[in-house]
Amino acid sequence: MVRAIVSGAAGRMGGRIIHLLEAADGIALAGALEQPGHPRIGRDVGEITGLPQKGIPVSSSLAEVLPRGDVLIEFTHPEPTLAHLKEVAAAGKAMVIGTTGLTPEQVEELKDLAGKTRVVFAPNMSVGVNLMFKVVENIAKVLQEGYDVEIVEAHHRLKKDAPSGTALKLAQIIAQTLGRDLEKVAVYGRKGITGERPHDEIGIMTVRAGDIVGEHTVTFCGIGERLEIIHRAHNRDNFARGAVRAAQWIVAQPPGLYDMQDVLGLK
Prior knowledge:
Layout: E1 2-7, H1 12-23, E2 27-33, H2 45-49, E3 58-59, H3 62-65, E4 71-74, H4 78-91, E5 94-97, H5 104-114, E6 118-121, H6 127-143, E7 148-155, H7 165-178, H8 182-185, E8 186-187, E9 202-208, E10 214-221, E11 226-233, H9 237-250, E12 256-258, H10 260-264
Parallel strand pairs: 1-2, 1-4, 2-3, 4-5, 5-6, 6-12, 7-9, 8-9
Antiparallel strand pairs: 7-10, 10-11
């Protein structure tokens, strides 16, 4: 039985992960973590997530709960995620990271720490989105030149980072496949007299509105036709379900950094 600890247990994603852990076979909740000062510290995790009493109080200390688990699942913010990864690596545990908004420097730090333990790091844990990553790579290989690439992502008004980690991952995959430097060709917004669109440009546009869970559209537009690949998340369960699957998988892997393509066997 895999024993999982959930960081951000009182949040939207944390709550859904805990619900899906409850329903999954071969894995169980062993601990719940929240940031110091959170009003739900000390309360039973079942009580705050709408489940029966679990006998697991929400803790503010990873050091306190880490010995109980095999893997930490984290969907929070960059700074606490990296701090927790240091503790996880030192303890020889595994970690599943769905946190987005990390800077390039933070990603490099994460990669360095991941080499000391076992980590799944992915901007999106959805099975459908990870299949989308594979599909757009194959499309880009075939279409190559002559098709303009545009990415549009939409999320709820409370999302703090933009563009989404998923949109950036899509852009990175396409740019790498086409042999382009994303830092040079990415455009994140347009206004005024922009001139003709450069042939190698990759547009990444952001929408923030209401309670949109997550939508990503990749358009390959040529002369006389366009191809659109769309993924729409109806709720957070697809992300949470992928995180649980990743947690079950990572505990048996050798040290290293993995993503959902590894978990799903798409590489």
